[in-house]
Amino acid sequence: MKKIAGVLIISLLSACASQTTQPTEVDDYSTGSYNGSGSSGADSSAYGSGGSGFYPMNDPGSILSQRSVYFDYDSFSVKSEYREMVVAHAQFLRDNPNAQVILQGNTDDRGSREYNLALGQRRADSVKNIMTLSGARNAQIEAVSFGEEKPRAYGSGESVWSQNRRADIVYRGE
Amino acid sequence: MPMYRHTVHCFYWLFSRLLFLVLLTIACTPAYSRLNIEIFGGGAERIPIAIVPFADENRLQQSITEVVSADLYRSGLFRMVDPGGLRPHAPADVVYSNWSERGASALVIGRTIPMPNGQVEVQFRLMDVARQSQLAAHAAVVPMTQLRAAAHHIADIIYEALTGEVGVFSTRIAYVLKQGNNYALQIADADGYNEHSIIQYTEPIISPAWSPDGSQIAYVSFENKKPVIYVQTLATRQRKAVANFSGSNSAPAWSPDGRKLAVVLSLHGGSQIYLINADGSGLQRLTRSSSIDTEPSFSPDGRHIIFTSDRGGSPQIYRIPVTASESTTAERLTFEGSYNVSPDYSHDGRSFTFIHRHNGRFNVAVQDIATRQVQILTNSQFDESPSFAPNGRMILYATEIGGRGILSAVSRDGSTRQNLSVQAGDIREPAWGPLPRKR
Question: Does A144 contact B247 at a Cβ distance shorter than 8 Å?
Answer without folding.
Answer: yes
